[in-house]
Amino acid sequence: MENCRHSNQSGTSAVHKVISDFLYIGSGVALTLKLLGGSVSVGLFLGVLFAVVRYCNICRSVVSGIVSVIRGTPVILQLSVVYFIVPQLWGCKLDIVSTGIIAFGINSSVYVAEILRAGIESLPKGQFEAAYSLGIPPFQMWKDIILPQVVMNIFPALINETVTLLKETALIATIGGMDIMRRSQVIAAGQYEYFVPLCTAAVVYYLLVLSIEFVGRKIEERKTAC
Amino acid sequence: MLRICGVSKSFCGVKILDNVSVEIAESSIFGLAGLSGSGKSTLLRCIQKLETPDSGTIDCDRKVGFMFQDFQLFPHMTVLQNLVYAPALKASAEEKEKCVDKAKIILQDLGIEEKASEYPGTLSGGQKQRVALARSLMIDLDVLLCDEPTSGLDVTTMADVVTLLQSVNQEFGVTIIIASHDLDFLTRISDRIVLLRDGTIATGIYPKQHDDPIGHLKSYYS
What we know:
The complex is a heterodimer.
Chain A: H1 2-26, H2 29-55, H3 60-71, H4 75-90, H5 96-122, H6 125-133, H7 138-168, H8 180-191, H9 195-225
Helix pairs in contact in A: 1-8, 1-9, 2-3, 2-5, 2-7, 3-5, 4-5, 5-7, 6-7, 7-9, 8-9
Chain B: E1 2-11, E2 14-24, E3 29-33, H1 40-47, E4 55-59, E5 64-67, H2 79-84, H3 93-109, H4 125-137, E6 143-147, H5 155-172, E7 175-179, H6 183-189, E8 192-197, E9 200-205, H7 213-218
Parallel strand pairs in B: 3-7, 3-8, 5-6, 6-7
Antiparallel strand pairs in B: 1-2, 1-4, 8-9
């Protein structure tokens, strides 16, 4: 009887513990989503800029150099540069979220630029010529004619890049960001037990990835219906 | 008058146009005949400034529209949006409404008004052709360049295209320059035809003043 009560009590507290650990790890989603949202925006903006500038042969070698260097160095290094070196050079300390958004955003932008380049090159040259023949100015041509078609063509690749970016945000833990990954490590280190915290983090990341894929599929279906 | 003086153009060392000179009268229908690779499309592209000639000049200060062989409609826009987008860019709200009305009238004239809200992907070749023509007509042009306007069309649709281009020429006084290898079509529609062979002008005729224009042009093909 005594033993049974004891095992019931320990079972309840174990469930309690798992739930509280899950909530603790899950509360890191806010930081992960902030980083993801910010860096996707920065990545798209800079990626479009890089791709268009390169296609139009403006400062092509400079942009190609930037793209080459960023693609050729690890994200964790870029994160460290933004967090440790930029403040030394400019004398201003960036918080963890801004650091992450800048580093992940710049890193993502070069991949977005490459995806866009492929998309632009796959578009018939006649689309540019038709726009020129109709007297459409370059800005409107890119905004309303070229990029909407390119984005539709490369949409699956952009979703893929977003998923990659989501997983890369886990590197924010290296500079102390309390995201999903970092929180699971904290719990694991405190309990000397890795299985449950890491599996919990994996489940949370996996659910986020599934959500991104679901939203992407819905947008694609809607666009295809048009 | 549209003057082309000594125009030459090469691609990768291959001469496509070689010292082509021709004058095209205003409000006329001018045919450019020739086999594939004879330089017809390149000459049209030079007139539209899509290509820069290696030498020679093209004297044309008029508004030029281009109807592409593969139409090049904007696939993410409806037929009506394809027509209205360019002319409405710098227009006021009132002018935009006028643009939409004008587009609807043109679509009606071309017999495709019921396709206004459809996307180009859902149209047949002949319908796309009409939309491409309608889009060119929306910008109040003086010169219309047509690259192989009848390629892939059946006989009935081809007859419609002839009627359509003739009415555009007569009603709006638009100069039409047509590049085509279809001699039957060209002799039916053109006031004057020039035949290009290996990038040079082989012969030129006024088909309505000729007994056997097709036979004459064919004799220069070989």
